[in-house]
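Justification of computing resources. Each target in the renewal requires a structure prediction run like the one illustrated here; the chain below, 270 residues long, is used simply to show the kind of job we budget for.
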Amino acid sequence: MRKSIATVSLPGTLVEKLEAIAAAGFDGVEIFEPNLLAHGGPARDIARRAADLGLAIDLFQPLRDFEGVPDNAFQRNLERAESRFDVMGELGAPLLLVCSNTDANVTDDDERAAAQLRELAERAARRNLRIGYEALAWGTRVATFDRAWRIVARANHPDLGLILDSFHTLVRPDDWSALRSLPGDRIFFVQVGDAPRMDADPLTVRRNHSRLPGDGDLDVPGFLRACLATGYAGTLSLEIFNERTPDSPLETAHAAMRALRGLEERASRQ
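Resulting C-alpha cells:
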C-alpha cells in the first residue's frame, strides 16, 4: 500500500520532519496544523520543500468542533473552514480532516450534522478539495465510526467521506465488526496507531501513550484487514502523538516505516 505519516508522529521542526519522512521512504505526509504554525513561514514554502523531497501532501488536519452547532456558530465555522481551504491551496493538499465535535454543547442531531457537513463538502468541491470526517473516541455525540458513517451517508455528497483511525476504533469497548461492511469508496483515508490497554480515558491515552503498530495492545492488524475487506485501496498512514520522543526525526521515521511494513505483513498472514 501507499504509505504516509502525520507530522505529529515525529519530533523536530517541520522541515526536519519532512526530510526524515522522505529519507525513510514514505510517499506522502499529513500536515498537522500546529506544526505548520510553528514553522512560521508561508505554506507554499512547505509545499515546495515537500515536492523537492518527492513527498505528496496528502491531507491537512484538523478542523475541530465544526458540525452539530447552532446556525450562528455554523457561519463562523464556515469562515474557519474557508481559511483552511486557503492554506490547503498553498500546500496542494487535497483532503481536509474534520474530527467529530467535542464541545459539551453540541446538539445530538444527525440531520443537522449531515446538513452542515454537506455544505462544507459543497464549498470544498468548488476548490477541488474533499472532506474526510473522523469520529474521535472522545467525541461528545459522534464517537464511533458507524455513527460517523450514518451522518456521511445522510449528507450524501461525493466529496464527503470517512477517515478511519485504528486508535479511535479500537480503544473503545464497542463492537467494530461492522467496519468491514462499509463501502470502500466512501473511505477517503486510513490512519493507524497503537496504544496500551490501561485504566485511563481515551484522550489521555492518545496524548500520552501513543505507540507504533505492534508496540501496544490494540488489534491493529485486524483493523487493517477489515478496512481492506471493504475494498479500500488507498493510503495507509501512521498517526500517533510522538513529538516528545528522545529519538531523532530520522530514527523515528525509519521506525515508523518498519512498523507499517510489519503491520501489513501481520495483516496478510492472519
